[in-house]
Amino acid sequence: MTDFAPISDNIIRPIPGNIADPTPFLQFRATKTLHTTWGPQRLDVSFELPRGSVLAIYGPSGAGKTTLLRILSGLTPAASGYIEVNGEVWLDTARRINLPTRRRSIGFVFQDFALFPHFTVRQQLEYALDKSTDRSVIPELLALMELEALQHLRPALLSGGQQQRVALARAIARRPRLLLLDEPLSALDDDMRHKLQEYLLKIHRQYGLTTLLVSHHLPEVLRLSDKVMVLEKGTVTREGAPLGLFFAPFSPLL
Predict the structure, then answer these.
(1) What is the pLDDT of residues 193-241, one digit of tens each?
(2) Full DSSP string of 99-165
């Protein structure tokens, strides 16, 4: 049985406005050998995702969740696969197509924040922009993430929650097609985690993002996602709406 904190009604209530376009926006198929504590495991995952949705990828450590995000971002090569985002092919091993990470429209937020230690908050966001990006997005993001008073500080002077807000703002500065979140709130206490979930919901709605979230935290999955994919030993074992998946009678996840 999976342990989880009590869920209040306001956490599991459907999110107003978080309605995804049913047309496939992301098509993903990939295989790769995973090297786990149990020995080699084959990652073999295929799914489609509508525009504007939030997909939570849930499962035990070593199941391939982070590897899936890294293949999608181009940071880890797939043995075979096909990735198409909004009609653009990012990966097709059969045709030897493999766009480098810099050409994939993604924002990636890691568990450890990965901020540049000698850059101020504002410089972190400016560095994320390319020459074609409208610079007005910087003050917009600083205001949205409530970072205006902190914009001239470096990461060493920020709390964990403040650093994660900077990481989130930096990830969306270029208006990515996909936002990839690899357990971004796991290092925070419960109160700060709840506050950061509010910021995630805010940016997801405001910028019309399509988001993939890796998380072990069930209340977070229930609050943020509209679909869950359970990954075990490199294979999707279950998928569906969060409430039906976790709270159906005799659910194997409970």
Answers:
(1) 888 898 888 888 888 999 999 998 899 999 999 999 999 999 999 999 9
(2) --GGGS-EEEE-TT----TTS-HHHHHHHH--TTS-TTHHHHHHHHTT-GGGTT--GGGS-HHHHHH
Encoding tokens for residue 63?
């199941």
Tell me if residue 246 falls in helix, strand or coil.
Answer: helix
Q: What global pTM score does this model have?
A: 0.85
* Ramachandran bin of 35, using left for φ above 0, alpha for ψ from -120 to 50, beta for the remaining angles: beta
CB of 225 within 8 A of CB of 15? no
Helix%, strand%, coil% for the chain, nearest 5: 35, 25, 40
Contact (Cβ atoms closer than 8 angstroms) between residue 233 and residue 219: no
**Domains of the chain, each with CATH number or no CATH:** 21-105+177-254 (3.40.50.300), 116-175 (no CATH)
253 closest CA partner among 120, 28, 56, 94: 56
Tell me the C-alpha distance between 99 and 104, whole Å. 7
- DSSP 8-state class, residue 95: G
The burial of 120, by beta-carbon neighbours within 10 Å (0-12 exposed, 13-18 middle, 19 or more buried), is given as middle
